[in-house]
Structures are given as C-alpha cells and as structure tokens.
Design goal:
The protein is α+β, with helices and mostly antiparallel strands. The chain has 2 domains: 96 residues, GMP Synthetase, Chain A, domain 3 (2-Layer Sandwich), CATH 3.30.300; 51 residues, no CATH class. Helices cover 49% and strands 17% of the residues. It has 5 helices and 5 strands. The chain has a 3-stranded mixed beta sheet.
C-alpha cells in the first residue's frame, strides 16, 4: 500500500478512536486519555494506537485495562467508518514521548543551573600562577644565544690554538692545511694560558 494512504488511514483511525473514547466508552476506569497517533501496517492488518494518560500510576493502569476491554467495540466502529474490506486489529500502547520530553527538559534545566553556578564561581577567579603561563618563543631564543656566548668566552680563556707558520712545510710549525707528509703530525701547538 502507498505510504501516504497508510498515514492518512492511520490519522483517520486515531480520530475515530478519540471520538469513541470521548462519547461512547463509559468505563469508570478510563481516565483522562489522549490519543496521540495511530500507525497501520502496510498490509492494513494491524493498527497500533498510541495514547497518554494524565494522572497517577493507578489511573494509568485502570485506563489500560479499560482500553483492553473496549478493543472489540472500538474495532467494529473503525471497520464501519473506514469501509475497509478487512478491519485491522487494534493494539493500544502508552506513548512515552511526553514523559521522555519532560525528563529531557528537567535534565536541560539542571545543566543550565550547573552552568550558571560555574559561571558565578569563575567570575571572581584569579589565575594561580602567572597571568600568561606559556613561554614566549622570542625570549627563549635570546636566552639560548646568551648561554652559547658565555660558553665560548669560557673556552677562549682555557685553550689557545696556534697553527704555526703556514710556510714551514715539514717543521714543527706545520704547513699549509692538508699538505703534511705521512707519519708526521700536523704540528699544531697548544698551550694553556
């Protein structure tokens, strides 16, 4: 069956059931019942009617029992008014959507109150440490350069490298870099000052 036609038929069944509960069902157990929706299967054999009850747990249980006992009468009226060849069987299910929505609204309200309490506590708060606890990259680079300069100054005072005379090819003074005879040192002298 077409989904649009099934939806339209479900709306019609919900309307018929609501009128029956208001005018023809006189069961004293029936509380303040509101039909919220009716859904019918694609083969038109079964219809589920969703309802809500305003009241206590006893009134909800009494209304469920009253609907179960009046199912046959309501089904025959649905068959008469819809003109279907096969009247669908009816089942009544309590709709929990309003209760769930109410629970969600309560949770959202609690979350708002908790957020407001946190915002109030944060309004006068002051950071425990520095206002800006993160290192600044530029200042860090300057400090590293200063440390390297200090280390070079310390080494300059300890060791004095003297390459000797660059023209002395074989002597102790060494020669041009890379031109030393095999087996001889580079002739570099060092002394502590």
């Amino acid at each position: 069956m077409n989904q649009a036609r099934a939806r339209k038929l479900g709306d019609r069944i919900a309307q018929i059931v609501a009128e029956m509960l208001e005018r023809r069902i006189k069961d004293p157990r029936l509380g303040f019942v509101t039909v919220t929706e009716a859904r019918i299967t694609g083969d038109l054999r079964e219809a589920t009617v969703y309802y809500t009850v305003l009241g206590s747990a006893d009134e909800i249980a009494g209304s469920a029992a009253a609907l179960a006992s009046a199912t046959g009468l309501i089904r025959s009226e649905v068959g008469k008014q819809t003109g279907l060849k096969h009247t669908p069987s009816l089942s009544f299910v309590q709709d929990t959507v309003p209760d769930t929505a109410r629970t969600i609204e309560d949770l959202v309200e609690k979350a708002r109150q908790a957020d407001a309490a946190v915002a109030a506590a944060r309004a006068d708060a002051v950071p425990a440490g520095d206002p800006d606890p993160y290192r600044q990259p530029a200042a860090e680079d300057d400090e590293e350069d200063e440390e390297e300069d200090e280390e070079e100054d310390d080494l300059d005072g300890l060791v004095d490298f003297d390459a000797g005379d660059p023209e002395d090819e074989y002597g102790d003074g060494g020669g041009p870099l890379g031109h030393y005879p095999p087996g001889r040192g580079n002739g570099a002298r060092y002394s502590r000052s």
